[in-house]
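From the pipeline queue, job 12 of 40. The input is one protein chain; the requested action is below.

Action: predict structure.
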Amino acid sequence: MHDLDQDDDFDVADHGPSRSQQRRDALAVFDLAEKLVGLTDTQLKRVPLTDSLRDAVQHTRRITQHIARKREIQYLAKLMRRDDEAVAAIRRALEGDRDESRRQAAALHRIEHQRAQLIDGGEAELTAFFARYPQADRQRAQHLIKAARDERAQRRAPAAFREMFQWIKQLESERNTQATQTASLANDPEG
């Protein structure tokens, strides 16, 4: 009889991950290394890297030949696989950047939607806008709405249309700052 037949406690987990799983894990780290090399300097500064990994990323960025660059990325991935905690921290940092990008894109879409509602809408949309932004200047809003409608009707360059976007963006920024200050005051036990 074989040893496997006699061993009732045989468990696949005792042998570690399969070769296929190891390969998938290695390819995931390779993809992560590629992303690191593709980041801008500003984005790279926000990623927690050891000095040796940061140097390896910088070195890999300087290589322009395709095959040589791929070989260096493979080496970078090999360095990264040596430290599971570093790989996890890098993934968290990149996921956080992606989530932040999504939030920023969603905020810009909301501003675009508000602008479209103001231009295409009537008094009800204007009232809802001032309920959301009580600090907004009513005269400026009406001027920008009229100018944007005129630009569209006359097929002119959208100067007021763009100015309106920037104005709403500024109002939203002020609103978020005020909400943050209010929340911090509410959480301050001495305040």
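Job complete. The two ends are 78 Å apart (CA to CA).
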